[in-house]
Write a structure and sequence with these properties.
- Residues 1-28 are annotated as: Disordered.
- InterPro entries: DUF7344, WH-like_DNA-bd_sf, WH_DNA-bd_sf.
- It comes from Halorarum salinum.
- It holds the Pfam family DUF7344.
- This is DUF7344 domain-containing protein.
- The chain is mostly helical.
- The chain has a single domain, classed as Orthogonal Bundle (Arc Repressor Mutant, subunit A).
- Helices cover 53% and strands 8% of the residues.
- It has 5 helices and 3 strands; from the N terminus they run ααβααββα.
- The protein has helices at 25-32, 35-47, 53-65, 74-94, 113-123; strands spanning 51-52, 98-101, 106-109.
- The protein has a 3-stranded antiparallel sheet.
- The radius of gyration is 17 Å and the shape is globular.
Length: 124
Amino acid sequence: MADSKSNESSTPVRRSRTTPEAVSPGEAFDLLASQRRRYVLDCLRERGAPMTLAGLADEVAARERDVSVPDVPAEEGERVHVSLYHSHVPKLANAGVVEYDRERDTVTLSAAREHVEPYLELVA
């Protein structure tokens, strides 16, 4: 009989993705298959600092429409925000490429992004 107390903590254990080796080439291409995720990574690389999710959504929406941020309709910015929040940022965060701080609502590139960046150059 297995010891039911072998896992003392009730919190789920999350796989740590802090090294570039943690992202395989196949996973990198899967992450970069979405133009929206590529825009997320480009925006964060260019900014070189954390971005709020709302600010990131506006930047991504502007790139998708090839306009400046002030020219993005509010409903389009909101649509992209929802997509980033529910799909794209979690996928990038689960792979360890970005970190999302829920309290501050900010997205930051992580060290593991170094493994994805060479592929980003190929698909750009």
